[in-house]
Amino acid sequence: MESRPIAAEVEAVERAIQYATITGCPLHFVHISSVEAVSVIEQARARDLNISLETCPHYLLFSHDVLTQKNNLGKCAPPLRQKEDQQKLRQAMKANRIDFLTSDHSPCEADLKDASTYNIFDAWGGINGGGLTLLGALQFAIEEEIDFQHVANWTAKHPAERFGIANRKGSIQEGKEADLVFVSLDEHLVTLDNMYAKHPLSLYTNERFQASIESVYSAGVEVFSRKVGPIQSKTGKWLTAY
């Protein structure tokens, strides 16, 4: 964390904003981990620059303290921050200062995260969490007593609007594709077996969520069931902005 401080994140954000100012290019920030960076982006947006931003569930749910428990499994970039910085970011998310919530999906073979083989600088960097993004968003909402409508905005509506596919994705409306997720408030324990991945080990392994995914539909076709697991389908297609 000290090798990649918040000051470095802010400087990188400021540099990208300067490039966007010069070129007029729309800009989207991924993996924002500090409220200081959020504030810099807000100042730029106040000047009518076309900028959006996101953070990841692990920055909201975990602090730097997790490295003392899970070692290299918690390595990511930017790094997990101090508890007080994590709390500030949670408040920013709660106040709708961050547009959406996405994964930093970076799986790897288990030995690349092995602390007995690799130190923190040489270990694989990134969090295997793409399949748990929605559960992470729901967990944050439950802990902060936020209406689930905001979860739908963070993970579906706002991304679809930002990237020009809201005419067919991002919300439940007549004429749009039936991309649906059914959830329950049954507890979900993350295990290597229910990650359904080639490389299932994750920062989230053995973590408990206060919600679970019951089923997932892509364009009206069921592609996942809690009882069955992933269901083979061919609904995927390349999306272009309108």
Automatic annotation (TrEMBL):
SUPFAM superfamilies: Composite domain of metallo-dependent hydrolases, Metallo-dependent hydrolases
Amidohydrolase-related domain mapped to chain residues: 75-220
Signal peptide: none
Ranges annotated as spanning the membrane: none
Protein name listed in UniProt: Amidohydrolase family protein
Native source organism of the sequence: Alkalicoccobacillus plakortidis
